[in-house]
Design a protein that fits this description.
Largest sheet: 5 strands, mixed
Distance between the termini: 53 Å
Oligomer: single chain
Number of strands: 12
Mean pLDDT: 92
Order of helices and strands: EEEHEEEHEHEEEHHHHHEHEHH
Number of helices: 11
Bound molecules: zinc ion
Shape: globular
Low-confidence stretches: 326-342
């Protein structure tokens, strides 16, 4: 038998991806299936179990043993208790004993993480963040996720189930409504949902009356990739949405750089493919909103691992939990749990 491998997963509202990853982060195999978000928790978990078993069968053919499963999931994650507290993509899994059920079905130790933290660990190990001790990560997808890496480690805060939630920092109290219920969050400016809502608003106010984006919106098939393509082809209204996205990101990153005394950020997620459309306004905004840092000192990097980052990161974090079960953050988490409520 060759060395152990760990399964790493990225569980999103659209797809569930499971990979087989070596201890050094080398990705041996990955599989992807559609997530049926309308299905109940039991259906979602049963599909996930089948997918994991298929990957374990691939591992057996490669003569690899699988030592653990790590999953990155969007939302508020009780990684120590093994449950999802809240997930915007998978509401049916809230409070479901995910780790317990998967662990029993697969006969493996299972660990869950926030997906942006998994992204951060992947980029930290092998991607754009390697060799940079302190940085923040932002993942631009359906929503906006985030992570904080300090001294080469993920910052867990008080282990309340979230940290680095830049997506829900209010950057304009009069801005568009966010899925979380607040107004003007970063997510309401800088996600694929924000881009699509931007097209909806342009149609509602009569500025966008025809063309491919108008048609796609009416047909219910509009995607952020399509908005990017139109912007790249010179559509001024589409380009304006990416300008707003860059402005919002620059403002948010400037605040974090000032607060943390750091100067590196890594941006990933599907919407980061529209880099050409937002990086210039992002840098202008970052410069304009930085009082402590000169513009040329700030470094904003694009993901190097793309959609592999969260797979590699969640596998690595699971392997870490396996080898160091009592981490400092765990101890802090345990102490917090025992504290009387204020
Ligand atoms: Zn929000």
């Amino acid at each position: 038998m060759k060395s152990d491998a760990v399964m790493g997963g990225d569980i999103g509202g659209t797809h569930m991806r499971i990979a087989l990853v070596e201890a050094n982060g080398n990705l041996l195999h990955s599989s992807k299936t559609a997530t049926d978000v309308r299905a109940g928790a039991v259906d979602v978990v049963n599909r996930l179990i089948l997918q994991c078993r298929e990957v374990m069968a691939v591992a057996a053919r490669m003569k690899r043993s699988v030592s653990a499963l790590g999953l990155g999931i969007a939302g508020k994650i009780d990684r120590l208790g093994g449950t999802i507290l809240f997930s915007p993509n998978l509401p049916s899994l809230a409070r479901y004993p995910l780790v317990e059920v998967l662990g029993a079905a697969l006969a493996l130790p299972v660990f869950i993480e926030n997906d942006a933290d998994s992204f951060g660990m992947g980029e930290n190990l092998l991607g754009a963040g390697r060799g940079i001790p302190n940085w923040i990560g932002l993942t631009l997808g359906t929503g906006v996720g985030g992570c904080i890496v300090l001294g080469g480690h993920l910052w867990r805060g008080d282990d309340l189930g979230y940290s680095g939630e830049f997506g829900h920092m209010v950057i304009d109290p009069n801005g568009p409504e966010c899925a979380c219920g607040l107004k003007g969050c970063l997510e309401a400016h800088a996600s694929s949902s924000a881009l699509k809502n931007g097209i909806r608003e342009l149609i509602a106010c009569g500025e966008l009356r025809n063309g491919p984006l108008h048609e796609a919106w009416i047909a219910g098939s509009l995607t952020s990739e399509q908005i990017h393509r139109q912007a790249a082809q010179g559509d001024i209204l589409a380009a304006r949405l990416f300008h707003r996205l860059g402005w919002a990101l620059g403002l948010a990153i400037a605040g974090q750089f000032s607060a943390l005394g750091i100067r590196h950020a890594v941006i990933g997620g599907g919407v980061s493919n529209a880099w050409d459309q937002f990086i210039t306004p992002l840098k202008q905004s970052l410069n304009a909103h930085s009082s402590m840092l000169r513009g040329e000192e700030a470094v904003v990097l694009r993901t190097e691992l793309g959609d592999k980052a969260a797979l590699i990161g969640s596998a690595y974090l699971a392997g870490l939990q396996l080898s160091q079960p009592v981490m400092e953050t765990n101890r802090i988490g345990t102490i917090l749990r025992k504290s009387p409520q204020p």
